Amino acid sequence: MHEHGEDERAVAVKSFALILRSLDTISTAITFVLKYLAELLHIYNEVLKEQKAILNSMTGEFLKWEDIQKMKYSWCVASEVMRLTPPFQGAITTQRYPTKQ
């Protein structure tokens, strides 16, 4: 037993669930961003306008940190999507597993 009253198996199961379920968080977040952009065309148009402005202001072939910092509206959209549909839901459960006695 650990100091918080959980046995090693329960801690191992929760740790494994945390690792396993965190693998798909990025793809889930991107999927929901695309879903909301497809449904809300006025937001899609604002994101597109912002991205085109950044593309037109670029001096090189690759994005620089300064270019990414200009993506304020896109960042707000991504943050709001993750607030509405968090990509990491329910990884920590309170299910109890039988212990050997």
Question: What is this structure, in a nutshell?
Answer:
It comes from Thalictrum thalictroides (Rue-anemone). The protein is mostly helical and 101 residues long.
Question: Which stretches of 5+ consecutive residues score pLDDT under 50?
Answer: 91-99
Strand content: under 5%
Largest beta-sheet characterization: none
**DSSP strand count:** 0
Summed up, the helix count is 5
Indicate the percent of residues in helices: 55-70%
What would the principal axes of the Cα set say about the shape?
A: elongated
Could you tell me the mean pLDDT? 80
Instruction: Briefly note the structural class of the backbone.
Output: mainly alpha
Terminal Cα span: 12 Å
Give the radius of gyration: 21 Å
The succession of helices and strands, N to C, reads: HHHHH
Notes on the protein architecture:
- It is a single chain.
- The chain has helices spanning 8-22, 25-39, 41-57, 65-69, 72-84.
- The chain is an all-alpha fold.
- The chain has a domain at 25-84.
- It is found in: Membrane.
- One of its GO terms (cellular component) is membrane.
- This is Beta-amyrin 28-monooxygenase.
